[in-house]
Structures are given as structure tokens and as C-alpha cells.
Amino acid sequence: MTAQLSSACIAHARRVVADAASSVGPVAKANILPADAYVSPDFWAFEKQAIFGRAWLCLAHANEVPEPGDHLYLDMAGEPLVLVRDETGTVRVLSAICQHRGHPLAGGVAEDRRQARCSNARRLVCPYHNWSYGLNGKLVGAPAMRETTPLSELREKISLPEVRSEIFHGLVFINFDKDAAPLAPSLRRVDAELKTYGIDQLVPGHIWQQHNLGWNWKLHHENALEPYHTDYVHKGYHDAVPASKTEFCPFEPGDGQVMRMTGFAERDGDLFEVEGTRRLPGLGGLTNEQSSRVMFVSFMPTAVAVFQPSFVTITFLNPTSAGTLDSRRVNLYTKEAIASPHFAQLRDEQFTYMKTIILQDQVTQTALQQAYHSRYTPRGTLSHLEAALPQLNQWSLERYTRALDELGRA
Question: CATH code at 299?
């Protein structure tokens, strides 16, 4: 980290983190993070190392590559990756950087290979010089190389680097830090909830990608986990889950998620259902309590999930700068729902309703990000309906502090 961050950048990070100490604790006393935590390029450079270079990052759902040979090109905080399911059915994450001259396996060609849904092939081929790799990352072919290095020798020493990964209830997490602690213990609180949801068996039924959204990644989590705004920004659209029925879950040091539950205003409610339409088969095995509410989960720092009885939606975040990010929203359904003859119609109706809420949020998030450049940006006085914000801040501050301590020892 010391080789990649300037002394000025590190000094700036220390000032911001010290100022952020008041952003944790009881919601009645906590405030928001300093504005520079959202807008400063120097602080973003620090975050890329302190968080995105070390934390477990929720990247995708394993069923986005359901069959052997399926592969999906993705980016994460500037790192090109490919999610693959190999011939044995194993899901793995590989670097999407060709080990010949460093050309990306996706991009740089007339037809960009980074698509919302997976492709299927036995080989991953670089478009620059046609070097090819197996689904396990091993080099397979390298044309016109025999005059300098025999292919057999190249095959012995060259492969696409594999990124450390774990699958948690069907969700694929990666970590660029080979020494990081295992993922699962940090998610024990949400693990207890997800045992009845069967997330690993759900199937992507709709995927929506957006690029160059104009706000900081932390604002996305804050907006998703606080219901304070929903009665105002989403008036008439979010009434099925009123803010007054929200309960915030405990958060302890080391937790990898922040959670809240919001009950339905009426029995058998649904956040995104168009009133009066028929209903798709929902998730089976839920408890009565789970069937009566929506669960919002931030898998910090790269995913926000909404679990409800009808289906699950997960937004995977790819921060690209201090004030921009890409998103990939995946709606997961039961196999029975997708097999329904009415699936396409009802899925589209759900998404149309959902999109209205999403776009309302995007207006406020973009405005908030722009306003954080103001010299008059406040540190905020929080409502009890924003109790998740200090928890989100604590998650970040644990990692900021750890990184700065290590820099101090370097």
C-alpha cells in the first residue's frame, strides 16, 4: 500500500478518518461521515486499497453461470474479471487480463464482450493475439510462438490468475487479499435468516445494468438501509412497506453485513407488486415472520439485497471513482415462477414498478453527491429511522483504521 499511495494521500486519509470518529455509536449522537469521504479522489484512492483491496466483495450469483462453459465478464473497482463455471461444474473467478501482453479478454473490440448475461464456450480467447485459455485458467493456445517459446513450455508456466472466492448461499464473493480471514464467520447473522430462503436455488429472471451513475458507493448503501426517505421520495409507491414498521438489526464489530426488516402494511403484501395482478409462485419454506416483511441487507461494500416472499433482488455495485459507480441489478426467482406461463408478463410489470422507485432514488442520490461538494455540507442530525447509518460507518471505519495502523507500522 505504501508504494501506491502518496504521503499526501495517506495524510489526507488520516484526517478524514479522525474526523469520522463521531459517525458511529448511538444514532441519537452519531453524524454522517465527512464530505471528503464521499467526494475526495485522494480518499477514494485510499479506499481502493483499504477496502476494495482487502474486503470480501459480493460479485455475482452463481446461477448467472448455470452450465459448464458459461462465463460472464465483470469489472470490480477497476479490475477486469471473468466468472466461469468449468467442465466439472466448479464456479471460479479468474483475472480477465491476458498473460501475454496484458490485453483484457473483454473489451477493446468492436463488439464489447461484457454483457448482462453469460456466454458459453470451452475457451476464453484474447481478441488481441488470439491466446486462449481453458475454463480453469490454464493457457491452451498461443499462435506464432514456436520461434521464441514452445507452446508446451508456455502451457506449463502461464495461466490466468485465479481470484480467491467463496460462495455463500449462492452469492459469489471474492477477495484480492490472500491473507484475509474466511468470509462465512462475518456473515453468521444473515446466515441464520437465509437458511429458509433457498437463495442458492433461485434463478436470474431479469438483469438490468447501468453505467456511470453519479454518486458514491457508500451513499447507495445508506439510501437502501434507511427508510426515513421512503414516505417522501417514494410516496404512493412504497406504501406496502411503511417506514414505521422498520426494525434495525444489531451490529457488532466484525460483522460483514448491515440489516433491517420492514413489515408489510397489509397481510400478504409485496413491495413491487402491481395491485390487482396475479402473483407468481414465491419462495417456499419461509417462516410466518419472514412472509410478513421485507429484509434489506447491505453486503458491504458491493451489494445490496432485498429479500421478500415473492422474489429476491440484488444490486451488485462496481465503484469507478469517488463519485461514480456501475450497477447490475439481478432479480432472482424460483424455478417454478420462471416456468409459469405468465412469468414474462408479470416479471415485466414488477420491473416497471421497481424501476419507478429506482429512478426516484437516483435523482436524490445524484443531487446529494453534487451537494457534498458544498462548503456548507452539514454533518447531520440523524433520525431513529437512520439507525443503520452508524452501523455502515462502523463497518467502514474498522477497515480504514486497520489500514492506517498498518501504514503506520510500514
Answer: 3.90.380.10
Q: Do residue 194 and residue 126 come from a single domain?
A: no
SS3 207: strand
Q: Are 171 and 31 in contact (CB under 8 A)?
A: no
Instruction: Give me the domain span that covers residue 313.
Output: 180-395
In angstroms, the Cα distances linking 109 to 95, 103, 113, 135, 241 are 18, 11, 8, 21, 45
Closest CA to 142 of 81, 90, 92, 98: 98
Q: What pLDDT band is residue 269 in, cutting at 50, 70 and 90?
A: confident
Assess whether 158 and 209 both reside in one domain: no
Count of beta carbons in the 10 Å neighbourhood of residue 384: 10
Rounded to whole angstroms, how far apart are CA atoms 126 and 383?
Answer: 52
Same-domain check for residues 288 and 139: no
Task: Give 165-190 pLDDT, tens digit per residue.
Answer: 999 999 999 999 999 999 999 999 99
To the question of pTM greater than 0.85 for the whole model, the response is: yes
Q: Please report whether residue 241 resides in a domain.
A: yes
**Between the CA atoms of 391, 353, 263 and 173, what dihedral angle is there, to the nearest 10 degrees?**
-40
Strands (E), 41-101: 57-61, 70-76, 79-85, 91-95
Work out the burial of residue 141: count CB atoms within 10 Å of its CB; fewer than 13 is exposed, 13-18 middle, 19 or more buried: middle
Same domain, 78 and 154: yes
134 neighbors 160 (Cβ within 8 angstroms): no
Q: What's the domain count of the chain?
A: 2
Give the CATH number, domain containing residue 151: 2.102.10.10
* Residues 326-345: tens digit of each pLDDT: 999 999 999 999 999 999 99
Residue 4 confidence (pLDDT): 81
